[in-house]
Write a structure and sequence with these properties.
The protein is α+β, with helices and mostly antiparallel strands. 30% of the residues lie in helices and 18% in strands. It contains three helices and five strands. It has a five-stranded antiparallel beta sheet with strand order 1-2-3-5-4, covered by helices on one side. The relative contact order is 0.17. The structure holds adenosine monophosphate and zinc ion.
Length: 137
């Protein structure tokens, strides 16, 4: 446990949270500022900062729990869809530095979307893919 970490404190029950799901590795609770009611956060119980730091075991557990929570939100809230999201590092809008996946209920006509995206500038499509492939080798 990281004693300065808000989500570690929720996992340790030192701070209150609307916990909706728990297993050996993960915990899910409601976001206090939801994009829609039911917006949940799924965290590893063991502290890690983000997608770069979390180990494979916890990552797999968080993915599994996110899907369980998605099913529950669909069933309980009659959602029209669910977005999964994760902000990693301040540059991506992360403000709580304990890894968490947002499971966000969506309803027809609500305004939350990053999409549609915009097309690449001339020549940038293949160049971007090349750069990423190089990083993977
Ligand atoms: P981010 O780090 O940008 O992915 O977002 C952190 C999320 O945590 C935000 O959506 C906040 O509304 C949420 N949040 C912050 N404090 C709490 C809390 N005490 N309980 C539940 N959710 C929280
Ligand atoms: Zn933590």
């Amino acid at each position: 446990m990281n004693t300065d970490c808000l989500f570690c404190k929720i996992a340790a029950r030192e701070l209150p949270g609307q916990i909706i799901y728990e297993d050996a590795e993960t915990l899910a609770f409601l976001d206090i500022n939801p994009v829609n009611p039911g917006h949940a956060l799924v965290i590893p119980k063991k502290h890690s900062a983000d997608v770069f730091e979390i180990d494979d075991k916890d990552w797999i557990a968080v993915m599994r729990a996110s899907r369980i929570v998605a099913h529950a939100l669909e069933k309980a809230l009659k959602t029209d869809g669910i977005n999964l999201g994760m902000n990693n590092r301040a540059g991506a809008g992360q403000v709580v530095f304990h890894a968490h996946v947002h499971v966000m209920p969506r309803f027809a006509g609500d305004p939350h979307s990053l999409w549609p995206g915009k097309p690449y500038a001339e020549g940038e499509f293949a160049k971007t893919a090349d750069k990423i492939r190089s990083a993977l080798t």
